[in-house]
User: What shape does this take?
Amino acid sequence: MKLHRRRFLQLGSITLAGIPLSKLTAQAAWYDHTAFSPKEDLYELFKNPKGTAKPFVRWWWNGNRVVKAELLRELDILKAAGVGGVEINSIRFPDTSNPLNYKEMNWLSDEWLDMLKTAVEGAKQRGLVCDIIMGSGWPFGAEFLTKDEQTQMMALGTKDFTGPQTIEVNRADLLKLVDPALASKNKTPYKELSFLRLAPASLKNPADAIDLDSKINQEIITLNIPEGKHVLYFLVKITGYMNVIYGAPGANGPVLNHYNKIAVEMYLNKLSDAIKPKLGSMGNLFRSVFVDSLELQGANWCDDFEAEFDKRRGYALRPYLPFILFKTGTHGRPINEVYGAQFSAELQDQIERIRFDFETTKMELFKERFLDVFLTWCKQNGVLSRVQAYGREYHPSDSSMSIDIPECETWMRKYVGEDLKDYDYTQGRTYSPVNKFVASGAKLSGKKLVSCEEITNTEVVFNATMEMIKLTGDQSNLSGVNHSIIHGFNYSPPDAPFPGWVRYGTFVNERNPINEFFKLWIAYKARLSTIFQEGEMRSDIALMHPLVDLWSKYSVQWDPFPEKAFPDYAHNVWEAIHQNGGGCDYVSEYVLQNSKSANGKLTYGPRIYKTLIVVELETMHPDTAKSISNYIASGGKVIFIGKQPSHAPGLKGKAMDKQVLDTIKQAKQKYPTNAIEYPSPTGEILTWYKDLQTKAGIKPFIKIDKPSSSVSQVYYKYGALDCFFISNYSKDKRHEFNAEFDVALSKTAWIWNAEDGSRMLYPTNGASNKLHIPLGPAESKLIVFDENKTGKKYSIIKPNEKTAITISTPWKLTLNHLDGSTKQITLAKLVDFKDDVDLSIFGGVAIYENTIKVNDIHKANYLDLGKVHGVCELIINGKSAGVKWYGDRIYSLGGLLKLGSNSIVIKITTTMGNYVGSLKTNKDSIKWIKGKNQPVYSNGMLGPVRLMG
Assistant: This one.
C-alpha cells in the first residue's frame, strides 16, 4: 500500500499495520462476524431478539466487596430485566456508601478469582454473556508498577524576563511551577528538568534560542538575560503523575506507561496468568476483554521517544520540542492561551508541521506498543477485543478498524431533549462527537457491532426518567451505535443502607421506583439493535474532516470531549446530512489512499460512496490528493467546503505542498462539474446543507419536505428489506412531514413496533413510497419497506380537538412513597409536585382517581393525560389501557368506556431524586443532588386531562 512506503505520514498504518484484520476477527465463537448476510427472517429476529442484540450492563463490583449468593441474585435480576450480558468491572468502593461487614478483595487474588468463577458460571447458566474490564478503573495501572513502568509526560513551563540582567533561579522552583491540574493525581511523582531554552520574545528561528541544557542538573541556575524581553522555556519530564481513577485494591496506584511495550505485556499477562490456572481458558469464560477510555491526561513520552522521532521523521526533535508543546491543563488539555514567545509566520508554519510529526510519532508508538500488543494478547487468549479506541493517543476512526468490538460513548445530560445548537457539539446532544468516527471505522472494516457505553450519567443521578433514557438511546442509534453497554448496574446488597452502593448512574436498581419499567426500554432497544446489527447501514456520502490541520494547530484532541471543534461546525455536518434524509460515514486519509474509484463510485471494503465532502481541509498527503483526483476523474463528485487542499503534512511535507495544490487544481480544471467549491455555513446548518444537497444534485435516501434539527434518521438494508429508523429527539415538540423514500415502488411500507414486536401496514400518501409521518415528543418510528402487502393496517392517532372535554372535577390522590408511607389527599386541580411544598419531595407511585360520565360513546375515543412527568398506566373500569413511558400520553379507549359513569385510575411512577435530595445527611444526596446542583424536578400529572372523539 502506498501509505506504508512513506514514513512521515502513517495515520493509516498507525492503526492497521501489524496484525491482519482477518486473523483478529476469526478467533472467537461468541459472535458472528459475517455481517450483512441475510440468513434468517428478520421479523422473527425482531420479535425475539438474540442475546447479543439485548443491551448489556456494566456491572460495577464496588470495592470487590462481593459474595456468591448476591452475585447470583443480581444475575437473576438482570436476566429478568432482559439484558443480554454483563461487563464485570472491578472498581473502587464508593466514598458515599457503608461497606457494612463485606470484605474488600484484591484484584486477581484467590478470593476474587473464586467470585469471578461464580459470576461467569452463573451468567452462563442464565444465558448471559460475560465481558471483563482490563484492570480496574481507568486508565489501568496498579500498586505494583515500578518507576520505569509508570506513565510519563513531557510538560512545558515558561517564565518571562526582561534584560539585560543576570538572575538566579532555583531548579526546584521550576519543577514546582510545572504542576498540571490533573484528576487522580499521584502525590509523589518523579520530576526531572529535561530541557532549558532562553528565547527572545519575538522568535524567528529556533536556533536563536540559547540552549541551557547543560545547566539542568544545577540546583541554582544562573541566567544571563540579554537586552529586551525573553522567555525561559523549561520542560519537565513527570513520571507516575497520576493514579488509576477509581481503581479497586490490587489495581490501584500509578497508571501504566502505555508506550512501554514490555510493561504492557507484563500487565496483560498478569490477568491471563492469574485466570488460566484457576478458571481455565479465557476464551471459554469471556466474550471480550474491555479497555475503557484511556484518559492518560497528557501522557506523551517514553524514554526512547526522542530517538524514535529522529529515526522515524528523519530529523532531530530536540531543537524544536519546547516550542511545539502546549502547557498542560485540566485532564491533560492543551492550554491554548497566550504565553511564551511570539513566533514569526514562517516559524509558526514550521512549528505546526513539526507538531504534527510529534503527534504522528506518538500515535505510532502507542499503536505498536499498546494497541497491537493488546490485540495480539486477546488473540492468544481466544477473546475478542472491545476498546474505546479514542483520545489523544488514537486516530479517532482508523483505530476502530483493527478492533473486534469498537466502542464509543453516549451520555445522559440534563439538557436531553432540548433543541440542538448549531456550531456546537454538546447542547441537546447525548452522543459524543467521537461516536460517528467510531461507527464509521467499524463499518469501513466490516464490523457487525458498534458498541457504546450508553446513558453514562454523572449529572442527573436519581433523576433520569424513562423518557430521558429513551431519548439518549435513540440519539445513540442515530450516530451509528447498535450494541448498548448500559452505564451501569451497581453491585449493591439488599442490606446496604438507602439508597445502596452507588458508583454512578442512572441507578438501575430495585430501590428505584421506575426500575420495574426499565425492562420496557431494554426490550425496545433489543428489537432496534436486531435491525441495526443484522442489517447494513447505508451511507453514500463520505465526509472528511481536516484532522491534520486540527492536530497541527491545536494538537490531538481529547475525545470524546474535544477541546476544539475545527472548524467550529465540524461535528454538525453529519447531523445535517441525516436530518435532510441522507447518510454518511467519516473517511480518513488511509481510507482514501486505499480505496478504489470507478464509474463515479468510491469503494473501500464493504462501503460504497457517491459523494465525497471535504470540510475546510488545507493539508493532506500527496497520495490522498491523488486518490481524490482519481475519484473525480472516474466521474465521482467531490465538494470542497470553504477551502481547497494546498499543503502536505509534516516538516518534510513542505517540499510537496505544490504537488498537493496542483493535483487538486488540475482535477478541478479538467472536471469542473465533478469538483465543486461550496462556501462554509454562516447561518443555520440544516438549511445550508439542504441548499447544498439541492445545488450539488445529491439524492437523499428520504426526501423530507420539512426537515428539522430535532428529527433525524438512519437507513439499514437487510436483503430486500429497506429499514428506516426515524426519531424525534425533542422532549416537547411535535413534528409532521411528508417523506418520499428512495425504494422500489413495488414495495409496501410497514411500521414495526419495537416496544411489542408487532407490525402493521403504514398508510401511504399518494404513492407506495410516499408517507406522511407525524412524530410526537420523543417518538420514533421504524418503517420497513417489504414486498409483502398483506397485513393489519396501522391507524395514526388523530384525536378530534374540537370535541375535547377537560376533566375538571377534583382528583383523589394516593401517594405510595418509596419510604413505605402512604398518604391520601384531594386535589382540586392538577399540580406539578415540585411547586407544592407537601409534594415536592415525593418519590414513588402516585395514584390519581376520578369518575367521568360518557353520554356519547363516539365522542370518547381518546383520553389525553396532558403533560406527565413519570411513567403512567391508565386503568378504566378496572381494565388497563396500557403503560406509557415517554412522549404523548394519549390513550385509545376502544372498548373500555361505557355509557354513564366510568372509573379512571392513573398510576404515575416518579423518579426518586427529589426524595433523595430531601435527605439532609445522606452522603449520596450530598454528593449527587447538592454536589451537582440538581434542582427539584417536575413530577406527577399536570394535565389537562381531556376526553376526545
